[in-house]
Amino acid sequence: MVEDKKIIIKDPEYISIIKDLLEKEKVQKMKMFRQHFNINCFDHCLFVSYNTYLICKKHNLDFISAARAGMLHDLYLYDWRKRENGRKGHHAFTHSKTAYNEACKIVDLNDKEKDMILKHMWPVTLALPKYKETFILTYVDKYFAIREKFIRVNDE
């Protein structure tokens, strides 16, 4: 797995796929919110997005949707550790819907991207992924969540 932002930002094909997302204010605001342990939401999504993109590309899957959905899969702008603004339900079960709703406000999603964002928390949630790309995103996300707990990821 690639865990170095310097490598990611030097990949012109990948950056061209998500460039419009990176220019969105809401996406940039993810930098203000801690995700897992010592990493912010933006960097977590970047690592998940890039690695999902690489795996899907290697296996001749839809790497474009994978890159884009990966960057948006945790697009929520709140500290999930705090109960604020009337948020209901446990974050693990609700944030994929929140991310989906926020993503829909800034970009048109295709069916695969919708599935990937809405179902990336499987099997914690019971929504079974429809596409191979969704399963890949799900596993890459879990890998980084666990990794971020134990080892500092190079997020500089």
Summarize this structure as a short list of keywords or feature phrases:
globular, single chain, Hypothetical protein af1432, mainly alpha, 156 residues
Task: Give structural notes.
By secondary structure, this protein is mainly alpha-helical. It is built from eight helices and no strands. It has one domain (5-78, 89-150): Hypothetical protein af1432. The longest helix has 19 residues, at 132-150. The mean pLDDT is 87.
Q: What Rg do the Cα atoms give?
A: 14 Å
* Morphology: globular
In total, how many beta strands? 0
Q: Give the strand content.
A: under 5%
Instruction: Classify the secondary structure makeup into a structural class.
Output: mainly alpha
What do the pLDDT scores average to?
Answer: 87
Helix-strand string: HHHHHHHH
Can I get a quick summary?
The protein has 8 helices and no strands. It has about 160 residues and is an all-alpha fold.
Helices and strands, with pairings:
Blueprint (H helix, E strand, L loop, with lengths): L4 H5 L2 H11 L2 H5 L11 H18 L4 H10 L18 H16 L4 H8 L13 H19 L6
Helix pairs in contact: 2-5, 4-5, 4-8, 5-7, 7-8
